[in-house]
Amino acid sequence: MAEELNNTEVVEEVETVDAPEETQPKEETFTKTQLEEIVKQRVAREKKAAEKAVEEAKKLAKMNEDEKAKYELEQLQNELAELKRESTRNGLAKEATKMLSEHDIQVDEDLLAFVVKDTAEDTQTAVNAFVGLINKKVEQGVKKALSGNTPKANVGQTQAMTQESFDKLGYLERLELKQKDPETYNKFTQ
Fold first, then answer.
1. Rounded (to 5) percent helix, strand, coil in the chain
2. Considering the entire predicted model, what is its pTM?
3. How many Å apart are CA 162 and CA 60, to the nearest integer?
C-alpha cells in the first residue's frame, strides 16, 4: 500500500483559451515526493515569514520597553532634581533663619517663603533688604511717636480740686486723675 501512495500521480490540466487546435492541453504530473518537497518548501517559506514577523514584533516590543525605560529614567531624573532643589531650599531656609535671628527677627514659614530664593546670594540679598526695610519702618514709627505734642501740665487743676469737685467727677475722669496725679487721687479717696 505504501508503494501505491508513492506512485500516485497528480494530474493538472491546463486549458488555454483561444488556443489553436494543434496544441493540446498540457498536463503536468507530480509524484508524491515532488509534492512533499513543494509543500515542505512552502511551509519553510511561511515559517520564515512567521519567524520574521515574530522577530519584528519583538523589536517593536523592545522599542516600547526602551521607551518605557527612557520614560522611567526621565521620571527618576526629575525626582532627583526636585529633591536637590528641596534640599537646597531647606539649607537656604536654615541659613536665612540664622541671619534673621541675628537681627532679632522672629521667623515663620511665610517670612521664609518671602526671603528664601534659588541661590544663596539671592537669599542673602533678600534677607538684607528685608532687615533694612524693617529697621527703616521701626525708625519711622519711633520718630512719629516721639514727634507728638507734649502733654499739658494740669498743675492748677489739682490745687483747685476740692472734695466736692472730686465727688462730682465721673468714673472716667477719676481714672484719668488717678493716672495723671495719683497723690491727689489718693488724698480724696481716703
1. 75, 5, 20
2. 0.42
3. 109
Cα-based distances in Å from 105 to 41, 112, 125, 155:
90, 12, 16, 43
Each residue's pLDDT, cut to its tens digit, for the chain (190 residues) gives 444 444 444 444 444 455 455 556 667 788 889 899 999 999 999 999 999 989 888 877 777 777 778 878 888 999 999 999 999 999 999 988 998 888 888 888 888 888 898 888 999 999 999 999 988 998 888 888 888 666 665 544 445 688 888 888 888 888 898 898 888 888 888 7
Q: Distance between CA atoms of 134 and 146, rounded to whole angstroms?
A: 18
Structure letter (DSSP) for residue 157: H
- Strand bridging mode 26-30 / 10-14: antiparallel
- Listed in sequence order, the residues at least 6 apart from 93 whose beta carbon sits closer than 8 Å to its beta carbon are 112, 116
DSSP string, 99-146: HHHHTT----HHHHHHH--SSHHHHHHHHHHHHHHHHHHHHHHHHHHH
